[in-house]
Write a structure and sequence with these properties.
This protein has seven helices and no strands. The chain is globular.
Length: about 160
């Protein structure tokens, strides 16, 4: 089971945590939790999906402990455009590893909301409930995360063009 699940679950840990060391810690702790709670799996839905929830929840719990205060003042919570840049990139793209590096560099609260919304397909309402924040805060954090990522990716693409 470990061999089968570890690549997928480690990828989740890397998406949520700031660096490899933090991801390694969450990965190990989440597998311990998975083995401790394996008798709670009810054979409803996929086992991988059930395990994935454990890993995501453990990553969020670690981030919550690191950062007690997630609230951000909101002036306007307007959803921004997707990450794609409207300008032409002349066929230059960044690799998955480069994108992951940029995601890992986001502030914890931006990264949590971004990952839950983009990779876990959760609604702002669900994210707000899970992180105990206002729904507008979730929207604002996502917008800001996208803005930061867009700026960093555009800068990297400009460097590649030059």
């Amino acid at each position: 089971m470990y061999t089968l699940l570890s690549p997928i679950m480690y990828g989740i840990c890397l998406k949520y945590m700031k660096n490899k060391t933090e991801a390694d810690d969450v990965f190990q702790d989440a597998f311990i939790i998975l083995f401790q709670k394996i008798d709670q799996y009810k054979f409803k839905g996929s086992f991988e999906g059930w395990a994935k929830r454990i890993f995501v929840n453990e990553a969020l719990e670690v981030l919550r402990k690191k950062q007690r205060q997630l609230y951000v003042e909101i002036e306007n919570s307007i959803e921004s455009n997707p990450i794609e840049d409207k300008k032409e990139s002349h066929g230059i793209a960044i690799s998955r590893d480069e994108l992951l590096k940029h995601i890992q560099q986001l502030p914890d609260n931006y990264r949590m909301v971004f990952n839950l919304y983009v990779f876990e397909n959760q609604s702002h309402k669900a994210i707000a409930k899970k992180l105990e924040i206002a729904e507008g805060t979730s929207k604002s954090l996502l917008s800001r995360a996208k803005s930061v990522l867009r700026a960093r990716i555009n800068e990297e693409l400009r460097k590649k063009v030059s």
